[in-house]
Amino acid sequence: MDASRTSPLVSKALLLAAVALATTVVTFSSAHAGPFPAADPDGPVLRVQVVYPGDRAPGSIEARRLAAGMAEPFVSSADAALIFRAARYWDPDRLQLTMRAGGRSAVATVNSRHVQRAGGSLLLALAPVHVDGDVWLPLEFLTAVLAPAAGDDVDWDPGMQVLTVGGRRADLLTLTLDETSDATTLVLGCAKALAWRLERSAPDTLALTLDEANAAPALLGAVPAEGLVAGGVLAQLPGGVRVAVALGPRAGGWNVETAEDGREIRLALQAREGGVPEEPAPAAAPDGPAAVPAGRDVRVVVIDPGHGGSDRGAVGDGGTPEKDLMLDLAEELRQQLRRLDFQVVLTRDDDRDLEPEQRAEAANRAGGDVFVSLHADGWFGAGASGVTTFAAPQDDEPLPDLADGFTPWHLAQRRHAIASGELAALVQPRLVAVSGSPDRGIVRLDARVLQGVDMPAVMVEVGFLTDPGQERSLLDGGRRRELAAAIAEAVAAFRGGGRDGKPRASSSQEEPW
Questions:
Q1: Which residue, among 295, 306, 360, 296, has the nearest Cα to 330 in the 3D structure?
Q2: Angle 221-227-232 (CA atoms, 0-180°, nearest 5)?
Q3: Are 450 and 366 in contact (CB under 8 A)?
Q4: What is the pTM (predicted TM-score) of this model?
Q5: Which terminus has fewer CB within 10 Å in the chain: N or C?
Q6: Among candidates 460, 457, 458, 461, which has minimal Cα distance to 470?
Q7: How far is Cα 452 from Cα 308, in angstroms, rounded to an integer?
Q8: Do 386 and 438 touch, CB atoms closer than 8 A?
Q9: Three-class SS of residue 205?
Q10: Are 484 and 336 in contact (CB under 8 A)?
C-alpha cells in the first residue's frame, strides 16, 4: 500500500489515538507533582464583577480557583460565551469545546493546555477542566483567545475582582455610601492611587474631581440620596472623573481621607450639631412674607420630551431627529429621578404630535412640582454649539387682582419666575460641566411651551445637532446618561431639604390664586 495514500479510516484512527495520548499525558501531569498543578474541583469561589463600555449593563459572574495553589480564576464556558457574545459547541467524545466569537473559532480540549485557533496553536499556562457539567476555562483563555477574537480589550483587576471588557481601563471601580446616625461617607474604590481635589462648586454642592481617571461605565449617572447626601451625579469628563454631591439640610462639616495604598478615597460628611436648624420666626410686620425654609416639597417631576410625531425638531447632518433623542433622554432622566425618590410623569412616552398647550395641560393635571422640557438646538451651519437653559422672564409688574381663583394661561408661569430662575441656575452649570460644551448661559424667555405651566419650569437645549461633534456626543448612550444625571442632580438640589414632605413656603409672587 502506498504510504502517501493512507485511507480516511486509518487517518481518523491515528488522529483519535494522538488526541487520546495527548489527553492522557496532560491528565497524568496534572494529577501528579510537577510543573502543572492538580485540578481542585472544590477550590474557592469568587464573585467577579464584569463591566462594559457604553450602554451594556454590568454583570456579576461566579469564578473558581480550580488549580491547586494557583490564584488564576476559572470561568465557566457559559459565562464566557455571554461576556463575549460567543457561540459554543461541545464534543463529548473528544472532550473538546469549540467557541466562536467575532467570526473566529478556537478549540480547547479538557485537561490539555493546547488551544487550536486560526493562525496556529496557543499553549496556556493552565488547562481547562470539566466540573459540574461545564468546561471551566482559565482566565488566560478569555484574555488571550476570546477577547482578541471578539475584538475586545480586557483588563483584569485581581484586587478588586473586576473584569473590564472593551474600552478604556477603568480607574474608579466602585462607589458606596456608608451611613451612621451622625455621618455619611462616600467611599470610592480605585484600581490605583489617584490624585484628587475637592471644591465647593455651589453653596449646597461638593465636587470631588479625580484627575486623569476613568470611571467604570456602570458608575456613570446619579448618586443616590442617602443620609446626609441629597443626591448627586458621577460624570466622565475629558480630564478625569467628577463626583458632585448635593448636601442635605443636616450636613455640616466634611473631610476627605485616603487609604494608605491610595486605592480608597473617603468623603465623610458630618451632621450639623443640634440637627436641622429651626426655621426662623415670621417677620414682626404682620404683612411681611413668611421665611422660606431650606428646601422645597418637590415630589412630582414632569419631563417633556420635545417635538414628536410629524414634528421631527432639529435634524443633524447624520439624519438624527431631535424628537427621538429627546425621548431617549427623557426615559433615562425618568430612571435617574426615580432613584432619587421622585415621582415622574412624561408628557409623551411615544412618537406622537403634541402641541405646547397640551404639554402644559398634562403637567398641570399631573400636579407637577417641577417641569423640564428637553430639546436639542439647531442652526444653519455647523459653527454653533453649546448648552442653554431657558426660564420665564422676571419683571416687577404686579400680577393682576383676579377673582374666582382664575389664572390666565399666559400668566401661569409668571408667578413662578423666581423659582424657575433658581432651577435654571442649578441646571445650566451642571449640564455644561458634564457635556464639556460651551456655556450659552441662562436665557429668560417667554417660551410658548412654558407659558401655561403652573409650576417652576425650565426648557433645556442640551446641544446642537447641527454640530457634528455634539451630534455624535448626543448619540452616545453614556453621554445621554450623564446629561440625565446632571439634570436629576439639579432637581435634587432644587428640592434641597424639603424631602420631609413639609409644604413649600411661597414668595409673594407665588401665593396661591
A1: 306
A2: 20
A3: no
A4: 0.46
A5: N
A6: 461
A7: 19
A8: yes
A9: strand
A10: yes
CA atoms within 13 A on the CB side of 73: 24
Position 33, amino acid = A
What tens digit of pLDDT does each residue of 320-345 get? 889 999 999 999 999 999 988 899 99
Q: What is the pLDDT of residues 52-78, one digit of tens each?
A: 866 678 889 999 999 888 889 999 999
Alpha-carbon distances, residue 157 vs 31, 153, 214 (angstroms): 29, 13, 14
Length of the chain: 513
- Kind and range of the H or E element at 234? strand 229-237
Q: Residue 255 forms beta bridges with which residues?
A: 268
CA 220 – CA 56 distance, rounded (Å): 12
Give me the residues paired with residue 97 across strands. 90, 108
**Mean local confidence (pLDDT), 160-179:** 83
Strand order in the sheet with 96-101: 87-91, 96-101, 104-109, 114-117, 120-123
- Rounded Cα distance between 285 and 287, Å, is 5
Q: Which residues of 135-155 are buried (b: 16+ CB within 10 A; e: fewer)?
A: bbbbbbbbbbbbbbbbebebb
- Cell numbers 400636579 correspond to 367
Residue that the C-alpha cell 443636616 belongs to: 250
Residue 22 C-alpha cell reads as 495527548
Q: Identity (one letter) of the amino acid at 141?
A: F
